[in-house]
Amino acid sequence: MHVFPRKAVVAAAFVAALILPGGGERALAQETPLAAAARTFAVEYYYKVKWGYFDEFTELYMKNHYPILQRLQKMGRIVSLSAAYPINHASESARWDMRFTIVWKDAATAHEEFDDSSIVKELYPDQDKFKKEEQRRFELLLEHTDVPVFIDDLKKWK
């Protein structure tokens, strides 16, 4: 899990709320900082895998990372999880192979310094094997991008 200083994340989330496209900036700019901090926080994680290794990457992701995310969801830290894959291909520079979206309870939860080592040790008693497989999963990546997004429920659209 990535960890970032809490103050920086809350500040960044608030600033992002003020500049969202599509007219969302007006509604969110009127929102109090406390309300903005309490709102769910969605992040899209884009993975671009070396050609020919997507199946191996996905297998390792499902085996070693997804169960940790499920545990965090069970704990209430994560609201929802979803995966998406492009149907058609794109140019190499625009290509991504998997988008994994996590909707966190809030921005602070998404970025606070949370120690998941007890979860990892419980789920993966053979730590050497786990670490080796995680190393391999990251070796298969060409690119990994985390994009916080605002998900508009469209209730205020006319």
Describe what this molecule looks like in 3D.
This protein has 158 residues and is an alpha+beta fold. The chain has one domain: 2-Layer Sandwich (Alpha-Beta Plaits). Helix content is 45%, strand content 20%. It has helices at 6-18, 24-29, 33-38, 54-74, 107-111, 117-123, 127-139, and strands at 41-49, 78-84, 98-104, 141-149. The chain has a 4-stranded antiparallel beta sheet. The longest helix has 21 residues, at 54-74. The radius of gyration is 17 Å and the shape is flat. The chain starts with 5 loop residues before the first helix and ends in a 9-residue tail after the last strand. Mean pLDDT is 85; it is low at 1-26.
Q: What is the string of helix and strand elements?
A: HHHEHEEHHHE
The total beta strand count reads 4
CATH class, named: Alpha Beta
CATH topology: Alpha-Beta Plaits
Describe the global form: flat
Largest sheet: 4 strands, antiparallel
- Helix proportion range: 40-55%
Residue share in β-strands: 15-25%
Give the C-alpha Rg.
17 Å
Strand order of the largest sheet: 2-3-1-4
**N/C terminus separation:** 39 Å
Number of domains: 1
CATH architecture classification: 2-Layer Sandwich
| Uncertain residue ranges | 1-26
| Oligomer status | single chain
Query: Which class do the helix and strand fractions yield?
Result: alpha+beta
How many helices does DSSP assign? 7
